[in-house]
Design brief:
With 152 residues, this protein is α/β, with parallel strands linked by helices. The chain contains 5 helices and 6 strands. It has a 6-stranded mixed sheet with strand order 3-2-1-4-5-6, sandwiched between helices. It comes from Roseicyclus elongatus DSM 19469.
Length: 152
């Protein structure tokens, strides 16, 4: 089983940490985004432009994911799809998404979407701003996860 890192890259705040881990472990990274994103010119890093169609990048990531894949995403429905395909998910804040917790994460996400829909005109706070401690938690989590996948 060859490990690969698949990245939902459009709004990913931890790309540099992903590259560093990939270089340390000599693992391929595939970036998926609506349009071209600058990235290191390195044989381990590749870029797939999905176009602007709704969920185009998500569909490509889900198709590429499987056992041995580590998918970096904050998109819970996408994480559910890749976990179902046998991959592991990891959020940019360092939270592992796997078969043990993806069902409850998806249910919570759906509940919150329903609540926001019923509160039209009212503002609800979004996620807290991304912080240095989130970046550090991600760097630690990707190392732990890559070792768990047999790359350390």
């Amino acid at each position: 089983m060859t490990t690969q890192i698949l990245v939902d890259a459009d709004a990913c705040p931890v790309k540099e940490e992903i590259y560093a881990a990939a270089f340390r472990h000599r693992l391929p990274v595939r970036l998926f985004a609506a349009q071209y994103l600058r990235h290191p010119d390195h044989p381990l890093i590749s870029m797939t432009m999905a176009g602007a169609a709704f969920d185009a990048a998500d569909d490509l990531i889900a198709d590429a994911a499987g056992p041995g894949s580590l998918v970096i995403t904050a998109d819970i429905p996408l994480a559910a799809r890749v976990v179902e395909a046998g991959a592991l998910g990891l959020t940019p804040r360092g939270e592992t998404l796997d078969a043990r917790n993806i069902g409850s994460k998806l249910a919570t996400r759906d509940l919150m979407a329903d609540l926001r829909g019923g509160l039209e005109g009212m503002t609800m706070g979004g996620p807290k701003p991304f912080s240095k401690s989130d970046r550090s938690a991600f760097a630690n989590a990707i190392e732990t996860t890559l070792r768990r996948l047999g790359n350390g």
